Each structure stands twice: as structure tokens, then as C-alpha cells.
Amino acid sequence: DRIIEGLAGIETLYKSRGYIYSYPNPVFKELPDHRVDVEIQMFEGDKFYLGRLEVTGNTMTRDKVIRREFALDEGDVMDMEAVKKSVTKIQQLGYFKMTEEPQFGVNPEEKKVDIVIKGQETSRNEIQFGAGYSGFDGFFGQFSFQTRNFLGRGEIIGASAQLGKVSNFFDLSYTVPWFMDRNQSVGVSLFRRNV
After folding, report:
1. What are phi and psi of 57, to 5 degrees?
2. By CB neighbour count within 10 A (0-12 exposed, 13-18 middle, 19+ buried), where does 27 fall?
3. Staple 149 to which of 40, 56, 65, 95, CB 3.0 to 4.6 Å?
4. Residue 89 is inside which H or E element, if any?
């Protein structure tokens, strides 16, 4: 089991450095006293790079909103571990659902791998209504709205209100998760609360 685990680790290491066809081949040599020598013969193959990265099925979301979650840029060394993590990050966006695994197109002459990400838009708006009663405020009503992909840019806009006999709350918020195309979040929140 430890040998199999070690071989998988070696293979992962090579595939994270662009050797997509690499594989380890263990050779066992039996010795006296129930001992075995293990020699790992490594087939590396050629080093590959990311060619074209395409996104399909996004009718509302802009390409760059999905592509910026991808850890590799076109021309980078083909890192299969980074591809797996990128697919997870794209799924976590919440407004673009991948309908199948990415498609890989290998170009052996140019040593490039093209990737096509297929998906579809999912609901990005949330609306909530509510009402209740408290000894302090009597009857009150609540409303909130949030969109997580404003104008297809991945920006978040939210509005909420609570109206009662004694207290009234109003909130507006706007968040840019990738400010100036960098992975830094900037947000503004305006609120008014009267009791």
C-alpha cells in the first residue's frame, strides 16, 4: 500500500510539472531473508503547456469572470493539479455550473493542451420575504434581495429592509470580488437604522 501511495505521489508530482504522459514503473528484485529491492523506472515523456482555454455555455457571465478562477494562463506549464483545483473553484462560484468534465485536446507537435470548459448559467438571484411578531416591535415585515452576478461580472448587489412599529432597518451593499482584476475584494455598504 505504501509503495502504491508513493507511486501515485510521484505521478502527481510529474503531472503537476507538465509531464502529462509520465508514469512510474516499479521493478522488484527479490533478495534473501524475505527482502525486496524496489527500483522505480520513470517514463517522463514530453513537457506540455496550456494552449487555448475556452468557456462555453455562459450566456450571461463574461468569459473573464470564469477564466480568472482558472489557476493557469495560456502558455503556462500544464499543471494537472492546478486544473483540478481550478475546476473546484469554478463550481464554487454558484452561478456557473459545469455540466461535464473539461475536454482536453492534445497537440503533440506543438506540445500544447487545449481545454474547453462546458457549463450553464444557474440562478444567481435570491429573494426572501418574512414576517413576525415580537413583544418589543409588534408585527414586523422583512424583505431581502441579492444578486451574485450583476451584469455578468461576478459582482454582488444586495438590499434588505425590516419594517416594524418601533424599529426600521434598511441596508444596501455592493461587492466587487476581483477589484481591478486582482483577487482582492472591495465592498461598500450603506445602511439606515431607526429605533
Report:
1. 95, -5
2. exposed
3. 95
4. helix 80-91
Cell 435570491 locates to 126
Set of cell numbers at residue 2: 505504501
Return the closest-CA partner of residue 166 out of 132, 140, 129, 127.
140
Q: Tell me which long-range contacts 162-170 makes (C-beta under 8 A, separation of at least 24).
A: 164/134, 164/137, 164/138, 164/139, 164/140, 165/137, 165/138, 165/139, 165/140, 166/136, 166/137, 166/138, 166/195, 167/136, 167/137, 167/140, 167/193, 167/194, 167/195, 168/192, 168/193, 168/194, 169/193, 169/194
The amino acid that residue 74 corresponds to is E
pLDDT value for 94 = 83
Does pTM top 0.90 for this prediction? no
Rounded to an integer, what distance in angstroms lies between the CA atom of residue 141 and that of residue 133?
A: 9
Are 96 and 86 in contact by the 8 Å Cβ rule? The answer is: no
Chain centroid to CA 49: how far?
A: 21
pLDDT, tens only, 87-105: 999 988 888 888 889 999 9
First to last CA, the chain: 66
Q: Which three cell numbers stand for residue 83?
A: 486544473
Query: Strands 35-43 and 103-107: what pairing?
Result: unpaired
- State how far the Cα of 89 lies from the Cα of 99, in Å rounded to an integer: 15
- Listed as ranges, residues in the chain with pLDDT below 70 are none
| C-alpha dist (Å) from residue 16 to 63, 110, 119 | 25, 19, 25
